[in-house]
Amino acid sequence: MESLRELFKIGKGPSSSHTMGPERAARIIKKRFGEDAEYVVDLYGSLSMTGKGHLTDYIIHETLGENCQVNFCEETLPFHPNGMVFHIYQDGELKDDITAYSVGGGSIIWEGEDDFSMSRKNVYREKNLKEILETLDRNAYSFYDYVMEHENALFVDYLYEILDTMFDSVERGLKREGTIPGKLQLPRVAKQMYTQAINLPAGSERETLILSSYAYAVAEENASGQTIVTAPTCGSSGVLPAILYYCYKQLNVEKPRLIKALAVAGVFGNVIKNNASISGADAGCQAEIGSACAMGAALYAWILGLNNSLIEYAAEMGLEHNLGLTCDPVGGYVQIPCIERNGYAALRAIDCAIYAKNLGYVRKNKVSFDAVVNVMKNTGHDLNKAYKETSLGGLALEFDL
């Protein structure tokens, strides 16, 4: 499996697969062929069907410059729903055709073994959670010990940068008012939600609204094209920051401990990415919000001081109970139902950790995390394409834009 640096990325929303990935691919293409080349970019599958709402064409134009034409094609390329073909011309002559796939979380896979292809360096030997747990037992490791043995010496500094960026996105989102860009004209509500929450008496409703306001704040920033962290994607970028900021502000958990919890969450996200998918276009929203919920559950279970087995139990519940979740963004925007789902998933992640804490010592969980990851993968393959980030079904059909 790859470094957690490839899971947690800093970038601009609204979509890691539809905005960050294409931008990354276009930047690499431009570096190779230069400013003077002319580019025609064909978008396929989900990139074509929801590209307008996700700003795919906009970001490609911004990256490649004026000598660029973007086409939306009806077909889907065979390897992945998020396919794009770059046609490069110099002096009116076609020089190359290059195919790339945006596979989720801002990651790109190139078709063929081109000399500028991004290397996918594996730093973790283990392929799934079963193998990881065996390594932990054999060495008497925690999940954090495991991460630190494999990542480089600068990784802790990187996690602090990730945490600070997450916190900044929460704080920015809590201050902003107005309308989120796009045809939906959706008002921002994070600031209002937080104001309502802090004026409530102490209790569960107050805490629910505070945590939710943090998730909404980041999700609204993402939907507005602002800087966030993929955790593991842009569409689910509000879940982990909400839990971390809640622990920091409401529970007084210090940053060094939060850094460790973030690394633990990354292990579970990495397993999902390696064995299934974190792409809504590939496997539905279960791959994005479901993955984030599982990661958040593991994170909070670590904060609660649970052992490795119970951390797995919490993460397993977080993914299991999002199985089959469809990706049906209204108008192709990462707004409805995406923003609300971030708040909901943050709440459920904490519930999963509390369940694991109180039930795990009574009855051993019979469902492994790896089993649920495999089920999620199979479920994603079985989902009709209308429910995989195409805006052809579900809630997307209920709105006439």
TrEMBL record:
Cofactor(s) of this protein: [4Fe-4S] cluster
Pfam families to which the protein is assigned, alphabetical: SDH_alpha, SDH_beta
Residue numbers spanned by region Disordered: 1-22
Catalytic activity as recorded in UniProt: L-serine = pyruvate + NH4(+)
SUPFAM superfamilies for the chain: Serine metabolism enzymes domain (SSF143548)
InterPro entries assigned: ASB_dom_sf, Fe-S_L-Ser, Ser_deHydtase-like_asu, Ser_deHydtase_bsu
Ranges where the Serine dehydratase-like alpha subunit domain occurs: 157-396
GO molecular function per UniProt: 4 iron, 4 sulfur cluster binding; L-serine ammonia-lyase activity; metal ion binding
Biological process according to GO: gluconeogenesis
EC number: 4.3.1.17
Keyword terms, alphabetized: 4Fe-4S, Gluconeogenesis, Iron, Iron-sulfur, Lyase, Metal-binding
Lineage top rank: taxon: Bacteria
Domain Serine dehydratase beta chain: 3-60
Family assignment from sequence similarity: Belongs to the iron-sulfur dependent L-serine dehydratase family.
Record protein name field: L-serine ammonia-lyase
Source organism of this protein record: Lentihominibacter faecis
